[in-house]
């Protein structure tokens, strides 16, 4: 297990250096950004003491590293594999737990810790025994596969938006929008085999434009029910919902570009780190998106002419 975490630490450092970021700077800046983002979240969001822990558990419950899990199962015994899963989940939420303790939310921090440990022993929702129909055409495979695995999350998000009307809480409706864009971004966590990129008769620019256009179209489609409900009951605040729509679109676009900016099949964890940072500090996307676009276009040049 010690060797595993040594290699994991080295891989994270390598990904940071590929970005042109000195690891020691990242390890100082990340906690600062997370503290700033978490503090802003508690200052600006109602019921943050409920939503913040829920968002943390939601993140752990939905994020998946399938190839990484398969590798662990092949290399370690079941006991060690389970132990690594527990530790990985705890490490993911540790900064958030520290912040909850700092806010003196001891019960919430203990509950989050217990839930993420329990999630370590549960299988992710995967294949079902029937073909679930989707509102998408056959070619955006990321959305077809992703939607069938996470359709229950959309039901929860739509349910939250209805509850926001019943309890007269606009922020809950906005949370529903954010959760949908977050889930859609996770559809682009894993890089497909190079053959599925090579078969496209497109230039790198056309390929990325096609991917981004499809993702924007279907992400917005999935949030239309919530935006419509908020527009009816909170028309004077609809501009806030539309602002989060724009930020959500940028978040999905950033994930697409990250997917092709790095050739490594094991970059899902790195994407997760960047994703969490931008979740709490959205302005960072305006700097990262152009950089990831340049990197993605450069990498795709070898596969697409």
Structure characterization notes:
- By secondary structure, this protein is an all-alpha fold.
- It folds into 2 domains: 1-124, no CATH class; 128-305, no CATH class.
- 77% of the residues lie in helices and 0% in strands.
- It contains 13 helices and no strands.
- It has helices at 2-18, 23-44, 48-62, 66-75, 78-102, 106-119, 141-166, 170-186, 194-198, 204-233, 238-261, 268-280, 285-300.
- Helix 3 (48-62) runs antiparallel to helix 5 and helix 7 (141-166) packs parallel to helix 10.
- The chain is globular.
- The N and C termini lie far apart (43 Å).
- Residues 125-132 have low confidence and may be disordered.
Average pLDDT rating: 78
Task: Please describe the biggest sheet, giving its number of strands, its sense, and whether it closes into a barrel.
Answer: none
What is the quaternary state of this protein? single chain
Question: What level of helicity do the residues show?
Answer: over 70%
Considering the chains and any ligands shown, give keywords for the structure.
305 residues, mainly alpha, 2 domains, globular
Would you kindly provide a brief summary of this structure?
With 305 residues, the protein is mainly α. It has helices spanning 2-18, 23-44, 48-62, 66-75, 78-102, 106-119, 141-166, 170-186, 194-198, 204-233, 238-261, 268-280, 285-300. Mean pLDDT is 78; it is low at 125-132.
Fold topology:
Layout: H1 2-18, H2 23-44, H3 48-62, H4 66-75, H5 78-102, H6 106-119, H7 141-166, H8 170-186, H9 194-198, H10 204-233, H11 238-261, H12 268-280, H13 285-300
């Amino acid at each position: 297990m010690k060797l595993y975490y040594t290699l994991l630490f080295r891989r994270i450092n390598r990904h940071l250096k590929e970005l042109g970021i000195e690891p020691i700077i990242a390890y100082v800046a990340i906690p600062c950004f997370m503290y700033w983002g978490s503090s802003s979240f508690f200052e600006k969001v109602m019921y943050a003491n409920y939503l913040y822990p829920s968002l943390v558990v939601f993140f752990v419950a939905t994020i998946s590293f399938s190839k990484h899990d398969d590798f662990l199962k092949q290399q370690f015994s079941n006991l060690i594999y389970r132990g690594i899963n527990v530790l990985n989940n705890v490490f993911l939420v540790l900064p958030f737990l520290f912040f909850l303790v700092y806010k003196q939310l001891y019960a919430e921090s203990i509950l989050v810790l217990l839930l993420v440990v329990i999630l370590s022993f549960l299988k992710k929702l995967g294949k079902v025994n029937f073909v679930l129909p989707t509102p998408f055409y056959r070619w955006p495979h990321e959305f077809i596969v992703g939607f069938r695995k996470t359709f229950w999350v959309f039901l929860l998000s739509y349910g939250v938006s209805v509850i926001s009307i019943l309890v007269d809480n606009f922020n809950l409706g906005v949370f529903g929008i954010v959760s949908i864009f977050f889930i859609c971004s996770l559809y682009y966590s894993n890089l497909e085999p190079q053959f599925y990129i090579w078969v496209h008769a497109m230039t790198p620019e056309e390929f990325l434009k096609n991917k981004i256009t499809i993702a924007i179209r279907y992400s917005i489609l999935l949030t239309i029910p919530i935006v419509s409900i908020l527009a009816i009951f909170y028309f004077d605040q609809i501009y806030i919902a539309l602002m989060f729509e724009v930020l959500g679109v940028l978040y999905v676009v950033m994930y697409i570009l990250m997917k092709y900016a790095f050739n490594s099949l094991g970059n899902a964890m790195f994407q997760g780190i960047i994703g969490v940072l931008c979740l709490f500090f959205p302005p960072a996307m305006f700097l990262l998106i152009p950089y990831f676009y340049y990197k993605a276009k450069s990498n795709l040049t070898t596969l697409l002419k």
